[in-house]
Amino acid sequence: MDPKTMLISLYIAQATVDDNRVGPLYKHIFPPAFAPSLSFVGMPWKLIPFPRCELQSKWIAGVLSGRISLLSKEDMIADIDAFYSSLDASCIPKRHTHNMDFQLDYEDWLAAKCGSPPPEKWRKEMFFIAREKIKTQTERYRDQWDDDDLIIQAPQEFVQFIPELPQVQKLST
């Protein structure tokens, strides 16, 4: 067997897919056996992907640059085992391992690890409003919204990154 095939076989033996669970992955990103050389971006689902992928990418870049340290392989495995045990105790099937029904804790954790600001307050409020609408109005949750005040906050938040805009433009929506 040539070295490339042996290496691929070794990777496959250490990172597996079982009933839609890709693992073992520390925080849905790093397989302990190959961290930090191998990482996965975008594994969690049922959430807004762009902010999460940005934070995951920042964390990976920080780890690869040496600016951010990972736990030891043993500690990563212990964390993964505890996570899997919590899923089992909650009767959550393997196929939902990467289901991030509640994304804010994960994004806050990633932001703290990266030294980035956490998601804005208006984003979190929008998340809770949308989540509640989905639960209470499953057939028509997209049809009616009560979040106009949050929609107004979004551009106001973004203009802080464009200081050359005149103040008049900043305030108009």
TrEMBL record:
Its EC number is 1.-.-.-. It is an enzyme of class 1 (oxidoreductase). GO terms for molecular function: flavin adenine dinucleotide binding; N,N-dimethylaniline monooxygenase activity; NADP binding. Keywords: FAD, Flavoprotein, Monooxygenase, Oxidoreductase. Its cofactor is FAD. The keyword DNA-binding does not apply. It holds the Pfam family FMO-like. The keyword Oxidoreductase applies. InterPro entries: FAD/NAD-bd_sf, Flavin_mOase-like, FMO-like. Belongs to the FMO family. This is Flavin-containing monooxygenase. It comes from Solanum lycopersicum.
